[in-house]
Amino acid sequence: MPTLRQLEYLVTIADTGSFALAARVANVSQPTLSQQIRTLEQRLGTTLLERSATGAMLTPVGRSIVVTARRMLSDASDIVALAAGASDRLTG
């Protein structure tokens, strides 16, 4: 099962086109980000990114997964907002 963090890293790579830039944006080391993407690919049993000296490009399945990942990350953010709103009402 992929983690939200791994999906965040994948989306960040998709947005930046680069492991190095994505690591900076995500505020993690490049080896950490790379390892999390490798783990994600192993868990899913497919290659999500084509790596090259000039950057990273999503594979066709990677593009499809990023679409769903964006939706999942948005939903997760909504859950946090809902919980925050509920806790505000309970403390009043």
Roughly how much helix do the residues carry, as a percent range? over 70%
State the major sheet.
2 strands, antiparallel
Overall 3D form: elongated
**How far is the first residue's CA from the last residue's CA?**
38 Å
Strand content: 5-15%
Taken in chain order, the helices and strands follow as HHHEEH
SS field, number of helical segments: 4
| Rg for CA atoms | 15 Å
Quaternary structure: single chain
Protein structure class: mainly alpha
Mean pLDDT across all amino acids: 94
Ranges where pLDDT stays below 50 over 5 or more residues in a row are: none
How would you write the strand order of the largest sheet? 1-2
The tally of beta strands, per DSSP, is 2
Task: Give a quick rundown of the structure.
This protein is mainly α and 92 residues long.
Q: Can you offer a commentary on this structure?
A:
The protein has 92 residues and is mostly helical. The protein has 4 helices and 2 strands; from the N terminus they run αααββα. The chain has helices at 4-16, 19-26, 30-44, 60-91; strands at 49-52, 55-58. It has a two-stranded antiparallel ribbon. Helix 1 (4-16) crosses helix 4 (60-91).
